[in-house]
Each structure stands twice: as C-alpha cells, then as structure tokens.
Design goal:
It is built from four helices and three strands, in the order αααβββα. By secondary structure, it is α+β, with helices and mostly antiparallel strands. It has one domain: 2-enoyl-CoA Hydratase, Chain A, domain 1 (Alpha-Beta Complex).
Length: about 110
C-alpha cells in the first residue's frame, strides 16, 4: 500500500468533512424530513437556481454555544445553507434553512452567514 503524502491526507480529510457537511443532520433526519413531503435545504436551492450555478459559502462554520451540551454537538453549516448562484442568468444571494440540523434554529454564527 502506497503511503499518502501530507497533502493527500489533508485533501482526504477535507473530502470527509465535505461529505459530512452535505449530509446536514444525517441520513435518519433527512429521511424523517422527507416523509413529511418536504424538500431538503439543498433540494430547494437546486430547484430555485440555474443548474450548476450555486456556490456555497461558509459550509464548515459551526455555532459557538456551550449551553445545553451544545459544545458536544458540532454541526457544519449551523443549520443554514448560504451562497450565491443565478436565477434566469441573474446573480442572486440565497440562504435556505436546514431543518435537519438543530431544527433549523437560528444562532449567532448562522445570523452572521
């Protein structure tokens, strides 16, 4: 087995973090959300924006709360997907609450996004 370079190890770590962030609250919460006939935050943005135009911002930010055991519950994106894309060719900035992550509740970090 070939030894990975430090750069490749970092890239693998980034890819793993990216996959986790894309899952929002995880497969079980997404399934429960969809049982109610609802779309995920990312699906709503896919419908709204021109195909392939979305650029996400702050995917890895997380809350800073230590109350109620939240310091043990680190969630990438902090319950909202933000970024920019195009609608009918026009540049727009968008946000979409992710109700699979902490119920989509607002935090200071999310408000800053």
């Amino acid at each position: 087995m070939e030894e990975l370079s430090p750069l490749q190890m970092r890239l693998n770590e980034l890819e793993k973090r990216n996959e986790g962030a894309m899952q929002g609250g995880g497969a079980a919460r997404i399934a429960k959300h969809k049982q109610g006939g609802r779309l995920t935050a990312r699906e709503r943005l896919d419908i709204l924006l021109d195909p392939g135009s979305f650029v996400e911002m702050d995917r890895f930010v997380s809350h800073r709360s230590t109350n109620f055991g939240m310091d043990k519950n680190i969630v990438p994106g902090d319950g909202v997907v933000t970024g920019y894309g195009r609608v009918n060719g026009k540049l727009v900035f968008v946000s979409s609450q992710d109700f699979t992550v902490i119920g989509g509740s607002m935090s200071r970090t999310q408000a800053n996004k």
